[in-house]
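P.,

For your records, the input lines for the assembly:
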Amino acid sequence: MEKGRLEAFSDGVFAILITITVLELKAPHGVSLSALASVLPLFLNYVLSFLYLGIYWNNHHHLLKACRRIHGGIMWANLHLLFWLSLFPFVTDWAGENHSAPLPTAIYGAVLFLASVAYFVLQSLIITEQGCDSKLAAAIGADRKGKLSSLLYASAIPVAFFQPWIAQAVYALVALFWLVPDRRLAQALKEA
Amino acid sequence: MEKGRLEAFSDGVFAILITITVLELKAPHGVSLSALASVLPLFLNYVLSFLYLGIYWNNHHHLLKACRRIHGGIMWANLHLLFWLSLFPFVTDWAGENHSAPLPTAIYGAVLFLASVAYFVLQSLIITEQGCDSKLAAAIGADRKGKLSSLLYASAIPVAFFQPWIAQAVYALVALFWLVPDRRLAQALKEA
Amino acid sequence: MEKGRLEAFSDGVFAILITITVLELKAPHGVSLSALASVLPLFLNYVLSFLYLGIYWNNHHHLLKACRRIHGGIMWANLHLLFWLSLFPFVTDWAGENHSAPLPTAIYGAVLFLASVAYFVLQSLIITEQGCDSKLAAAIGADRKGKLSSLLYASAIPVAFFQPWIAQAVYALVALFWLVPDRRLAQALKEA
Amino acid sequence: MEKGRLEAFSDGVFAILITITVLELKAPHGVSLSALASVLPLFLNYVLSFLYLGIYWNNHHHLLKACRRIHGGIMWANLHLLFWLSLFPFVTDWAGENHSAPLPTAIYGAVLFLASVAYFVLQSLIITEQGCDSKLAAAIGADRKGKLSSLLYASAIPVAFFQPWIAQAVYALVALFWLVPDRRLAQALKEA
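Structure tokens returned:
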């Protein structure tokens, strides 16, 4: 498996996902301010999903840059990650349309959680391929940032059934926390 | 015809197909568990189609890697394969929306069958181009795996009219059977 | 302007257009054979549009391969061609939904005609850039095939108002006529 | 961050946006001339958005060509620009469906304004990266064209509430004014 074609395919999927999520943002019925306001929750959810897809794309890029050889396992771990990301348009639409009702908010968190697990699996496979003493392994280290994020998503799921707004705030805060690109990795790889 | 541009175009089509199939997964009306359950058959069909597109992308990649020269016939055989794959969103939606009624299940199988035939034609053209003593020809051999899959899809079509669930199980089993990437090819080409 | 990025962008647009046209093919309401038959006209129109987009992609590829330098004029002529091609999903849907009523059939022909003119303009700009004694100019020659196609589309437009089926037959025949890739060009460039 | 992958991702997003905007152009109900005329405002808005996306793609290409190194800030400034561009299908549809009512026309202008600001930010970051005495800095100069455009979009927003057609005319005129590719940049870079 050539790395270039895997990257190109993944970039295509990222570009499509980041773009079609907005397709769910249907033109409101009516031309009043209140009609515009009615699409606001969906719009905010779109912004959040856009951020998450941008973060994943950025980190995915650094991860694959560090990867030298692609085997079948990495290929399928990558598709597994793309699968959970491909559910973003669906959960963005469902949570946004329903002003953050409990179940859609919880499902949004579940997709975030499963995507973070899939990312972790992909990362582990690439580190194993590289060897434990590789620069990538050193840069990732114990991956506290990644593990904490997964934990926060998982914790937000039950919370969504009682106070959906708290769960939403958790999703937004974790996104802000990742907006800063993974400097450890960028740094370590630059030195390479 | 340059191979690079054919690969890039095919990758684009694969990336779009794998992503837009999920667009058919409309947000359910309502926020209850039963509303979520109502999209489950469509979701499972989406998972299956995602797997099939991932398998085709993976095998297509190995096939083209083995190919040195593209002529008009290969170009059209490739488009012919992409045509049948492009019907996945349509059949996924139709079969999923109707809880696997007989006719949609049979049509799903027909598209799987025709895609597998189109893949076989593309493969044969590339082998002819390479010469029968090529590594690719040796790696594919009698292509029992491919022929058996086509046979299973074809057999599932009449079965769908009596027991749609058996046909669906066949589609799922063949997908699992392909999840393991085509090691023969990967192996043979690595030695090249 | 780098040729590579223009090709990549055009390939992206071609891949999306060829794929989203099928999105208009909505799952029929019902699971009977007659429900399936109701999408048949739209399906046939989809096949025709798929063929046309495949033909344009193939010829576009040969044309750009022959091109050495891209200036602003070529960039905009290329976007102009992509604009008319981007109307394919719209006209395919409109003509297919209405069992080839006169006006939609005529508009389908008008889009085919305008796309062929846009292709001619792009080709002329590239030949001018190359110089009249270039291999491309020699390969295209008087471009009787291209001019005849444009003429046939234009003639089919008024016919569509009287006998839409004749116009449709003309569109299908011209597509078949182009299915054979432009051997003149392929030949001439191979010798280069 | 490798420039190639950023360009490929951006090209993917541009290709998708320019293509899916037309998906909002639904086949009219009916086959009469008046049914066709009913989609005309949406069609004209589509043409305008297509032009704007083509202009942004062209200028984006020149800008990144001039860029040597991508850091995290440039990556996010680029995503920020793509975010505003991704709202084009939404505003095109809303303004077009409502025959240019005041609010949708104003929002269209606001998206144009915010996209132009995002482009300005991206350009400034790239110039800072290059150094103020770079060819790019010299080519852009005081960027009167860019600043004037932003000013015109901003001025058109309040006008849209009184005379939407004037605002629309401003959007169309600025687009025509940019149709000529940025020769300063093309020129300066060619000399490089």
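Two observations worth noting. Chain D has a mean pLDDT of 86. The first helix of chain D runs from residue 3 to 20.

Regards
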